[in-house]
Write a structure and sequence with these properties.
single chain, 259 residues, alpha+beta, Structural Genomics Hypothetical 15.5 Kd Protein In mrcA-pckA Intergenic Region, Chain A, 2 domains, nine-stranded mixed sheet, four-stranded antiparallel sheet, binds uracil
């Protein structure tokens, strides 16, 4: 495979940017600077670096979608629009599936991939990857939620009760709260706030691990993402950083609707 083609499959840079970088000497193959974009490389065995950082080879595909409300998280459905319907036909590769699930009424960051093994690591509660949600509440946020959620709240499930894992939460205004979950029970955020007597009016997933919903990405739009983004989705953030991010970029997300 040509070096420029290899790099364009593994990074977010355009072919034109990559050609300029290769010509400028920013790329090495097995320790040697290579300046010809057409140089052949063996993706599985050659060690390629770009601006000094290794470029790891992956054959999987990842997309980061800003899911809008009203679309279901499924690969296909005979009646309703699905998140995969939002991809351009060229991007609807075989085996693509959403990573976990957002409810029809929830918007925000949804990953779509054909890498089932890594997707499982991201969603399995065993691996503790945090998902961060911004919730708009009907009633004012109460300080006691922090301890109630941290101690692992119990949710009613028919006649029985389910124990949640400890969850962190904090308020960014009287009616906006950020909640970090390490698991994905059915309607979990909505049910957790209902269990403390409040109600979630709107829900936005803003972050998975350290991977954020880009503030400039409109609803229904998506981006291809690459290894370093996927790796960052597997690491956890400090909830205070997520709150600051939400405060700066998403605190007026639902303002239009409220007018
Ligand atoms: N919790 C919910 O209630 N809904 C979602 O979509 C995700 C988490």
């Amino acid at each position: 495979m040509r070096l420029d083609r290899f790099l364009s499959g593994q990074t977010a840079l355009s072919r034109r940017e990559l050609t300029a970088l290769i010509r400028s000497g920013a790329v090495t193959v097995n320790g040697t600077v290579i300046r010809r974009p057409e140089t052949p490389v063996q993706p599985e065995t050659d060690a390629v670096t770009l601006r000094g950082s290794p470029v790891t080879y992956s054959t999987s595909h990842w997309f980061l979608l800003h899911k809008p409300e009203g679309v279901i998280t499924a690969a296909r459905d005979p009646k309703q629009e699905t998140v995969l319907d939002l991809l351009r036909p060229d991007d609807r590769l075989p085996k693509l599936a959403p990573v976990g699930r957002l409810d029809k009424d929830t918007s925000g960051l949804l990953l779509i991939t054909d890498d089932g093994v890594t997707a499982h690591r991201m969603i399995s509660p065993k691996h503790h990857v945090a998902k961060y949600y911004l919730a708009r509440l009907r009633d004012p946020f109460r300080a006691e939620y922090v301890t109630l959620f941290r101690s692992g709240i119990r949710l009613r499930e028919g006649d029985s009760e389910e124990q949640c894992q400890p969850a962190e939460c904090c308020a960014i205004s009287h009616d906006l709260a950020v909640l970090a979950l390490h698991e994905g029970k059915y309607h979990q955020v909505r049910r957790m706030f209902a269990a403390v007597g409040n109600h979630v009016e709107n829900l936005l997933r803003v972050q998975v691990g350290m991977l954020r919903l880009p503030p400039e990405l409109p609803e229904k739009c998506y981006l291809p993402i690459f290894n370093k983004d996927v790796e960052s989705a597997l690491k956890n953030s400090d909830i205070s950083d997520v709150c600051a991010f939400c405060d700066a970029h998403y605190s007026s997300y639902w303002i239009k609707e409220r007018k």
